[in-house]
Amino acid sequence: MVEILPSILAADFARLAEQIHDVETGGASILHLDVMDGRFVPNISFGPPVIRSIRAVTRLHLDVHLMIEEPERYIKDFVQAGANSILVHQEACRHLDRALRMIEDEGLPSGVVINPATPVSTLHEVLDFVDIVLVMSVNPGFGGQKFIPRSLRKVMEIDRIRQRDGLRFKIEIDGGIHMGNVADAARAGCDWIVAGSSVFGAEDPGGVVRDLKNAAQGALAVMV
Ligand code: DX5
Ligand code: ZN
I need a labelling partner for 160 at 20 to 30 A (CA). Which of 91, 130, 152, 223 fits? Predict the structure, then answer.
């Protein structure tokens, strides 16, 4: 089943609990939380204290996307804050295997993320044990950017490897997703589809989650 993961980056932080409740009502079961340090990406967002506050108001799965340098230094902090899955960038980890195993050792699903210019081949040595592979479909750092269509080729390449090798990781996509491309993402092989501004920039975020999910599921139904 395809899941739509609302990214709260585009939410109204003064009304966060209400907005989270709204997307939950629309059928979201996972929230995507974007952590930015102003170094790995040219923007700063939020860290463990905000995640702890979110944890206190929802039971949704919290998918934490770390866009920070040396993420391994902070993994425990994010676990303690209430993360349910943690993703690190291939480009930010000098010791990618160690960082992913640290997440695993905390008992959480581990995820690896690749930027638009990073090839799938850089993941070769970790695909057999990660739980999530996230393909960035924009350059990370900001919400509201334009979808990079080429990223779907990488999703298809990863999906082929997954099928060929009988692997079970989820494929996630993040950036520039809206009603016009969500079906393509589902058809390419994405299981988890992140949507920020298309959801929280709308009048009715819950309704948009429902529409995106229906469009994604509908695309798969046609394929069968
Ligand atoms: C971008 C973040 C995304 C972002 C997506 O660096 O990783 O999760 O919030 O926002 P939209 O859907 O607006 O591209
Ligand atoms: Zn993200």
Answer: 91
